[in-house]
């Protein structure tokens, strides 16, 4: 069953991620484009370095080509934000990216982008799912005709045009818009300031797609660029291709040993960023988001709000308030962040998982641009990352977050869902509650400024608990209370 989550459709390769399902989704999008009268405008398709990504992009292209819909096929594995940029700049009604982003190597998937290079929102994805059901019915009907004793064979429900034929007939065009995308980023940052500092930067693409982009931009800015884990490995070195304190230990050691100014990592499709500072400390995505907002307002003089999701640090609220600005809270899913940013003309929007975007760039998260902006920040301020962190803590105090993931069976999921989202039960937390939100999971806001949320992941079979308090002990204690209350200690990931 093809079902969209917060980051597109993702499934285990060979289970639900199959050629047949890729063709069904492509045909569904064909039908949707026809009904909307935009089929003549074509579709842009890209892919990352995962197993079967390129082949899947070809299978999708063959369906569109057979239906006469022009395909811009982005040649070579590419960052997801590049596809979003291309869809936005060339006014395509839809784009597709074959990726499972930061998911384990056994997954692959498809992200669908709509006009403006935006992540397809919930309404759009629900509509695509309806079209998929129609396609599945047509496939079944055709199969019944062909194998049910009919004298004549029915037309296949999903036709394909061989990729090479599509190229020869011009319905499929291979393109490489990398330079266009990189030039846009280069024009948006202070390259001269970076050149003047001669910074040493370590990059860890995590076997993903960011290497060429980041190396090109930073080398152009005369940085001393050093790269680890750049080879093509569909197993991502046996690790999760998501930047975290656990997965970036090699980068931490590299930064310290070679006295780098910053270590930058991106996830599998380069829409998320992870950072190691000059001391070898892993900077949580919350810290990065706060740091960049602080930098853009204080040092660059930008004016505007900030947008975060419901599981991201409230330190952003403090910083925004100090500059007379507003921090907006939205559900998890970057489509909600980009939508609220457009609505409010916010400066920056992001999430605690490492995705962020900045006003004037694309309508989605971009680890390449975020990384470049962090390097610019070091150059412009003349301060080390560790010094900027200390400045912020001195001005606003410290907030500590505890994050926990739990695996579950379907039975356990139903039990948890009933307990916290239907019955709306809570453990005894011995703290005065300000309010409770069920916007996305269950989030409890305390009058002391702290909060805790329990929500199901939209990309993996996990329950996630986040808690933010003025000290780490209280954050841990609150997570323990929720863990015991839900009886999930043995399920901790």
CATH fold call of the largest domain: Alpha-D-Glucose-1,6-Bisphosphate, Chain A, domain 3
Structural class: alpha/beta
Overall number of strands? 22
Largest sheet: 8 strands, mixed
Write down the overall mean pLDDT: 94
CATH superfamily of the largest domain: Alpha-D-Glucose-1,6-Bisphosphate, subunit A, domain 3
Please, what is the oligomeric state?
single chain
Helix content: 40-55%
The gyration radius over C-alpha positions equals: 23 Å
Residues in β-strands, percent: 15-25%
Number of helices: 16
Number of domains: 3
Describe this structure in words.
This protein is of the alpha/beta class. It has 3 domains: 4-176, Alpha-D-Glucose-1,6-Bisphosphate, Chain A, domain 3, CATH 3.40.120.10; 180-396, Alpha-D-Glucose-1,6-Bisphosphate, subunit A, domain 3 (Alpha-D-Glucose-1,6-Bisphosphate, Chain A, domain 3, 3-Layer(aba) Sandwich); 400-491, Alpha-D-phosphohexomutase, C-terminal domain (TATA-Binding Protein, 2-Layer Sandwich), CATH 3.30.310.50. It has helices at residues 19-36, 53-66, 80-89, 122-147, 163-169, 178-188, 191-197, 211-220, 249-257, 285-298, 315-322, 334-344, 367-381, 385-396, 410-422, 472-486, and strands spanning 4-5, 8-12, 43-47, 71-74, 94-98, 107-114, 118-119, 172-175, 200-204, 224-227, 262-266, 273-276, 282-283, 306-309, 327-330, 348-350, 356-358, 400-407, 433-437, 442-446, 451-456, 462-469. Strands 1, 2, 3, 4, 5, 6, 7 and 8 form an 8-stranded mixed beta sheet that branches. The protein has a 5-stranded mixed beta sheet with strand order 10-9-11-12-13, sandwiched between helices. The chain is globular.
């Amino acid at each position: 069953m093809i079902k969209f989550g917060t980051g597109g459709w993702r499934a285990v390769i060979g289970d639900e991620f199959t050629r047949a399902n890729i063709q069904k989704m492509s045909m569904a999008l064909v039908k949707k484009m026809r009904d909307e009268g935009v089929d003549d405008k074509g579709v842009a398709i890209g892919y990352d370095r995962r197993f079967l990504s390129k082949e899947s992009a070809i299978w999708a292209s063959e369906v569109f080509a057979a239906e006469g819909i022009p395909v811009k096929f982005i040649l070579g594995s590419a960052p997801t934000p590049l596809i979003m940029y291309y869809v936005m700049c060339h006014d395509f009604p839809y784009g597709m990216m074959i990726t499972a982003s930061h998911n384990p190597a056994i997954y692959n998937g498809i992200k669908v982008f709509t006009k403006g290079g935006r992540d397809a929102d919930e309404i759009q994805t629900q509509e695509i799912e309806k079209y998929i059901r129609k396609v599945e019915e047509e496939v079944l009907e055709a199969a019944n005709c062909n194998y049910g004793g009919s004298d004549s064979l029915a037309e296949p429900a999903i036709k394909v045009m061989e990729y090479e034929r599509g190229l020869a007939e011009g319905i499929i065009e291979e393109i490489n818009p990398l330079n266009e995308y990189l030039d846009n980023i280069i024009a948006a940052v202070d390259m001269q300031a970076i050149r003047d500092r001669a910074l040493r930067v370590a990059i860890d693409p995590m076997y993903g797609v960011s290497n060429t982009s980041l190396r090109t931009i930073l080398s152009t800015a005369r940085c001393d660029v050093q790269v680890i884990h750049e080879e093509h490995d569909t197993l991502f070195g046996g690790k999760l291709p998501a930047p975290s304190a656990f997965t970036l230990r090699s980068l931490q050691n590299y930064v310290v040993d070679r006295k780098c100014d910053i270590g930058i990592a991106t996830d599998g499709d380069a829409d998320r960023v992870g950072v190691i500072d000059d001391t070898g400390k892993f900077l949580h995505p919350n810290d990065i988001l706060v740091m960049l907002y602080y930098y853009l307002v204080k040092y660059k003089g930008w004016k505007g709000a900030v947008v975060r999701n419901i599981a991201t640090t409230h330190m952003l609220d403090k910083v925004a308030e100090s500059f007379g600005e507003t921090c907006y809270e939205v559900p998890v899913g970057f489509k909600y962040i980009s939508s609220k940013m457009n609505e409010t003309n916010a400066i920056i929007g992001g999430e605690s998982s490492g995705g962020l975007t900045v006003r004037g760039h694309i309508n989605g998260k971009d680890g390449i641009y975020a990384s470049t902006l962090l390097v610019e920040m070091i150059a412009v301020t003349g301060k080390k990352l560790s010094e900027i962190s200390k400045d912020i803590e001195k001005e606003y105090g410290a907030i500590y977050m505890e994050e926990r993931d739990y695996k579950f069976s379907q039975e356990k999921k139903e039990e948890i869902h009933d307990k916290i989202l239907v019955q709306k039960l809570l453990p005894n937390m011995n703290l005065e509650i300000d309010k409770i939100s069920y916007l996305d999971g269950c989030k409890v806001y305390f009058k002391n400024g702290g909060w805790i949320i329990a929500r199901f992941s939209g990309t993996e079979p996990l329950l996630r608990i986040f808690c933010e308090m003025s000290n780490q002990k209280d954050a841990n204690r609150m997570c323990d209370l929720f863990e015991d209350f839900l009886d999930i200690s043995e399920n901790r990931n």
